[in-house]
Amino acid sequence: MLAILRLMTIDERIERLTERGEGLVMTAQLQCKDRETDSENIRALARIAEIHERRLEVLEHSEQ
């Protein structure tokens, strides 16, 4: 790897670093989107749990 970098021109090195930087930016953007989706799914599950809890409370009160 180091030998390859020594044979590259400065323009080739800059191009390679730019490509790697763009790849890192894309990865970060995808991770942010994944977190947003995870957050939405967690909120949806919390709503379902709250509804379920209310239904259980209604059933428990109707039995008493």
Q: Oligomerization state of this entry?
A: single chain
For the CA atoms, what is the radius of gyration? 26 Å
What structural class should be given to the helix and strand makeup? Answer: mainly alpha
Count of discrete alpha- or pi-helical segments spanning 4 or more residues: 2
Please count the beta strands (DSSP E, at least 2 residues each). Answer: 0
How helix-rich are the residues, as a percent range? over 70%
Which spans of ≥5 residues are poorly predicted at pLDDT below 50? none
N-to-C order of helices and strands: HH
Span from first to last CA? 75 Å
**Would you tell me the overall average pLDDT?**
91
Gross morphology is rod-shaped
Strand content: under 5%
Largest sheet: none
Describe the 3D structure.
The structure is a single chain. This protein has a domain at 36-64. Helix content is 94%, strand content 0%. The chain is built from two helices and no strands. It has helices at residues 2-7, 10-63. The termini are far apart. The mean pLDDT is 91.
Key descriptive features of the protein:
mainly alpha, 2 helices, 64 residues
Reconstruct the topology from this structure:
Layout lengths: L1 H6 L2 H54 L1
Summed up, what is this model?
This protein is mainly alpha-helical and 64 residues long. 94% of the residues lie in helices and 0% in strands.
